[in-house]
């Protein structure tokens, strides 16, 4: 495997352990991989991606980082946190959609000193044009900018998630399934590639919270990530699936998820957010009830972070 330049930004490996009370209640071994405990801000899946993406930015001599997302983007907040630590200027191009109150991640963006620019648009193409315009302006002043696309889900970002599967392989025996929330696809792609390398026989389920064609996007990202690190990637039947659980819409908490979020908090003390991990966890347990996790291997839920959203959204009554 080819080693790519990488920064050390998080505390890895993250813990991975069995959820005893949940497993007893649902009659199946369910483990949790605590990516929310990776040591930066409130943790989350973006740190593994940023270790590669920001290494590239630094190696290219960039002093400014741009990224984008929704107003409450966890990815944007974690980019701001890492850029601050690296002494880089960070400009966040956020989709406003009526959300500008300085709560949750927006409060943290400010704490980390990021410059937040709001855009009243639903189109990332419009936002990328704005990034290009600012890039030109700052370049003329002698700066060098590095633009990270939404979610950090480039092939290089996806490479970051290969190591998560490698850690799971050494932390948990008999992994049958790995489940995570899917919002831009890079995490699932890295897990799919990592499972091929370190957990042959384990299947990856992405619970999608955004209406994109992840059935195609994720395997393509995995293939492109494999090319970057020079390893083979061949699909097998059932190695990956996408299960949609968008509910009332992207970034809209869904009442049906609230009991599952409360159950995990009360049984195991683990916090889920209502935008990503709450939807993925609820989706996983409903699939389990339907018998949709064949075999008797453990199910490993990858907790991808997002807790700041608990302080920005209400948990709707079911
Ligand atoms: C908390 C959380 N979980 C999961 C995801 C989805 O990860 P990916 O964008 O790699 O699909 C995100 C992405 O923004 C996130 O913030």
Structural notes for this entry:
The protein has a 6-stranded mixed sheet. The chain has a 4-stranded parallel sheet with strand order 5-4-3-6, with helices on both faces. It folds into 2 domains: 16-45 and 154-311, 3-Layer(aba) Sandwich (Rossmann fold), CATH 3.40.50; 46-152, Rossmann fold, CATH 3.40.50.1100. It has 11 helices and 10 strands. The chain is globular and about 60 Å long. Helix content is 40%, strand content 18%. It has helices at 20-26, 46-59, 74-85, 104-111, 124-140, 155-159, 162-171, 186-198, 214-229, 258-268, 277-289, and strands spanning 16-18, 30-34, 64-70, 89-95, 115-119, 145-148, 175-182, 203-208, 240-244, 298-303. By secondary structure, it is an alpha/beta fold. The site of pyridoxal-5'-phosphate has 19 residues, from α3, β7 and α8.
Number of helices: 11
How are the strands of the biggest sheet laid out side by side? 1-2-10-7-8-9
Structural class: alpha/beta
Average per-residue pLDDT, rounded, comes to: 97
Q: Strand percentage, roughly?
A: 15-25%
